[in-house]
């Protein structure tokens, strides 16, 4: 985990634009670098959000794009900006690309092998983190499906078990899992397609969907509590995001030049967060993993391979990452322990995303709030 690398705001036929705190960004199309551009444009919105001292972080780069082109923008250290990669599709493309494109497009080599196992004529690539094609939407003849690619054996076991033993019987809003395919040494999972957009793509006002999402998390937690002693959790080689976050904070607290006051607060906070009740959790509930169908009002939570019993409040803090601590706590609501979990994990996320937070008035206010909530809970 590291500080925010910036955002792609827009991709159109003749260019890409966005912002980054890096001096310059590198632009690639279909895996081939096409140039770099300096980040010096004025962005008052970024400055107002406290992500840049002077707001001179904007960029724009000219391109000439066709249907199916994939645009990537990275920092000089090869870290992708948020929303990178970006699939360019014209409005009249009806959301589909011809499957013949996989044979000649270097970005689609990961999904070309699917052609031998699926009867399909049209597809659309979907992306995971940190920017690889992790899934593909395809026309199955019986309706759209989604194939998740390159899934490891342990992830297949965890996901298959979780869908059968938890998501389906608990009625959690999530796409139906149909079956799995063996593709060489890899495996693919086939899911029903949910016709929604990631929460992050809905722009300002996405917080209006929080009550619906919270209701799903509460249903998941109740089911997890009722079946805790029977719910077998297969092992995973993936380190949980909670563990990664705490490891980073602990390492930072032990750094030789860390101020004594901040070191003491981090040790105190980590002990308190460790004592929070563990509830059945998604484990990676960022806003790209919440799909919203604005027309029907339905949602779907996806990418459950990091599920587990995690400290209460972590899922909501992950979901609301980027919001000020007081707003995140207010939107989270719930018990005092949940509010403390949200405030505490928000502080750890904010330290990563905003290096100046520690010495700011906002940082001090959030530390005070954490202590108050801990006393009450």
Automatic annotation (TrEMBL):
<dbReference type="InterPro" id="IPR002575">
    <property type="entry name" value="Aminoglycoside_PTrfase"/>
</dbReference>
<feature type="domain" description="Aminoglycoside phosphotransferase">
    <location>
        <begin position="151"/>
        <end position="329"/>
    </location>
</feature>
<dbReference type="Pfam" id="PF01636">
    <property type="entry name" value="APH"/>
</dbReference>
<keyword id="KW-0808">Transferase</keyword>
<dbReference type="GO" id="GO:0016740">
    <property type="term" value="F:transferase activity"/>
</dbReference>
<dbReference type="InterPro" id="IPR011009">
    <property type="entry name" value="Kinase-like_dom_sf"/>
</dbReference>
<protein>
    <submittedName>
        <fullName>Phosphotransferase enzyme family protein</fullName>
    </submittedName>
</protein>
